[in-house]
């Protein structure tokens, strides 16, 4: 593909991504994969270049841009080679007109920037939310050690804070490696490893991962338990939860029981665990503002209404989780969001309604309300809020 054809492809993809975000359709990665599946003439260098241009345009756009062309034009203003690719050639975009609209630029739509401001994030912390994310893996302690993996993977470096984490060059095809296939490693951001470890899982305990999804943290907890004790992994999303069993098998985590819940009927479906768990992890559904580095177009999908619905779900899972904890047991609440509405305020509301519960200090992040926070600018991780809560005896 010529440089002009690559630019045109990025513009078309961005148009599709903007439309999909408005309609709640497929994510950018899926749209990019579909686009190239029907364009076999595009080689791997073309695909990589177009993908990079698409993501650079999304990161720089701020609020939803009027069009893919407006998003790319914003980048072209500071990139002569890109501006030159608007050459009017057969497969390229039309030449740039002087007064054409550009994407506004910035971190996010104005209402979200205001919410981030209110949540105490500085301009630098907000800007880092749309940086590029590093590629982190967690070493499976059931199968090997960090030192052994380091010896096999010469360009890996230990993550600064997570004891089982390694950082790899971006783009490393981890899932095609023998180490991954053999279950020795999992892809997991360092921040996710740190907040997952806040549950302080121990062998022999009875633990619940209430919002397990495909089991990223379930596998981490199972390994920390050394496959001893009981570990219940729940979710309301069948497709996600179904991905857990094969992952657990690959990682050699044998103690997991998966349980699909019906929304609104969680309590009755978990009656056998009521008041019995030593610990409950609540990795709650959230807006994902802390993971914009990986899904920058997610900030175009979020609306105040969606945020309200997420807040209601968070309050619900906190309440369901609390009912599972035994007297004196613990509950760890996590969101991969830096909005106080989803983190600090939720925990404050829980504590106001459950006055006998107390707060403990996790060993990660910066204190924030009753919890702690990790953010890309300060910690180099995805953004998280985590709070450790203790039930009365
Ligand atoms: C942040 S994701 C979990 C990610 C997962 N823990 C991991 O580490 O990969 C939140 C999950 O909560 C689930 N969820 C939403 N409402 C729920 C409910 N009422 N009970 C249990 N899970 C719920 C969603 O389906 C989603 O998979």
TrEMBL record:
<protein>
    <submittedName>
        <fullName>16S rRNA (Cytosine967-C5)-methyltransferase</fullName>
        <ecNumber>2.1.1.176</ecNumber>
    </submittedName>
</protein>
<dbReference type="GO" id="GO:0003723">
    <property type="term" value="F:RNA binding"/>
</dbReference>
<feature type="domain" description="SAM-dependent MTase RsmB/NOP-type">
    <location>
        <begin position="121"/>
        <end position="392"/>
    </location>
</feature>
<comment type="similarity">
    <text>Belongs to the class I-like SAM-binding methyltransferase superfamily. RsmB/NOP family.</text>
</comment>
<keyword id="KW-0489">Methyltransferase</keyword>
<dbReference type="InterPro" id="IPR049560">
    <property type="entry name" value="MeTrfase_RsmB-F_NOP2_cat"/>
</dbReference>
<keyword id="KW-0808">Transferase</keyword>
<feature type="binding site">
    <location>
        <position position="235"/>
    </location>
    <ligand>
        <name>S-adenosyl-L-methionine</name>
    </ligand>
</feature>
<dbReference type="InterPro" id="IPR001678">
    <property type="entry name" value="MeTrfase_RsmB-F_NOP2_dom"/>
</dbReference>
<dbReference type="InterPro" id="IPR029063">
    <property type="entry name" value="SAM-dependent_MTases_sf"/>
</dbReference>
<dbReference type="InterPro" id="IPR023267">
    <property type="entry name" value="RCMT"/>
</dbReference>
<feature type="active site" description="Nucleophile">
    <location>
        <position position="336"/>
    </location>
</feature>
<dbReference type="Pfam" id="PF01189">
    <property type="entry name" value="Methyltr_RsmB-F"/>
</dbReference>
<keyword id="KW-0949">S-adenosyl-L-methionine</keyword>
<feature type="binding site">
    <location>
        <position position="283"/>
    </location>
    <ligand>
        <name>S-adenosyl-L-methionine</name>
    </ligand>
</feature>
<keyword id="KW-0694">RNA-binding</keyword>
<dbReference type="GO" id="GO:0008173">
    <property type="term" value="F:RNA methyltransferase activity"/>
</dbReference>
<dbReference type="GO" id="GO:0001510">
    <property type="term" value="P:RNA methylation"/>
</dbReference>
């Amino acid at each position: 593909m010529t440089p002009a054809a690559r630019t045109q492809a990025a513009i078309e993809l961005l148009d599709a991504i903007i439309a999909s975000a408005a309609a709640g359709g497929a994510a950018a990665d899926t749209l990019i994969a579909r686009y190239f599946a029907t364009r076999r003439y595009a080689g791997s260098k073309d695909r990589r270049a177009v993908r990079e241009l698409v993501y650079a345009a999304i990161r720089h756009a701020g609020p939803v841009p009027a069009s893919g062309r407006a998003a790319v034009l914003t980048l072209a203003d500071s990139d002569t080679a890109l501006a030159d690719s608007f050459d009017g050639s057969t497969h390229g975009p039309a030449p740039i007109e002087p007064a054409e609209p550009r994407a506004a630029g910035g971190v996010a739509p104005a209402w979200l920037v205001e919410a981030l401001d209110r949540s105490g994030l500085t301009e630098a912390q907000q800007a880092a939310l749309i940086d590029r994310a590093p590629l982190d893996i967690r070493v499976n302690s059931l199968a090997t050690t960090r030192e052994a993996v380091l010896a096999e993977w010469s360009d890996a470096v230990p993550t600064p804070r997570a004891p089982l984490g390694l950082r790899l060059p971006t783009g490393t095809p981890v899932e095609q490696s023998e180490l991954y296939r053999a279950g020795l490693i999992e892809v997991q951001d360092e921040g996710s490893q740190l907040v997952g470890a806040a549950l302080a899982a121990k062998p022999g305990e009875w633990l619940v991962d209430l919002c397990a999804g495909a089991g990223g943290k379930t596998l981490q907890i199972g390994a920390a338990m050394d496959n001893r004790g009981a570990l219940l992994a729940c979710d309301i999303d069948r497709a996600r939860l179904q991905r857990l069993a094969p992952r657990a098998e690959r990682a050699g985590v044998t103690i997991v029981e998966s349980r699909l819940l019906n929304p609104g009927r969680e309590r009755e479906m978990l009656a056998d665990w009521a008041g019995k768990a030593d610990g409950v992890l609540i990795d709650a559904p959230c807006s994902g503002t802390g993971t914009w580095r990986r899904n920058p177009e997610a900030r175009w999908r979020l609306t105040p209404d969606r945020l309200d619905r997420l807040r209601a779900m968070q309050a619900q899972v906190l309440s369901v989780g609390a009912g599972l904890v035994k007297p004196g047991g613990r509950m760890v609440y996590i969101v991969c969001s830096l909005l106080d509405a989803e983190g600090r305020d939720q925990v404050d509301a829980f504590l106001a309604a459950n006055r006998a519960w107390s707060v403990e200090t996790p060993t990660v992040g910066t204190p924030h309300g009753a919890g702690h926070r990790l953010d890309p600018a300060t910690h180099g991780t995805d953004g998280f809020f985590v709070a450790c809560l203790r039930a009365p005896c």
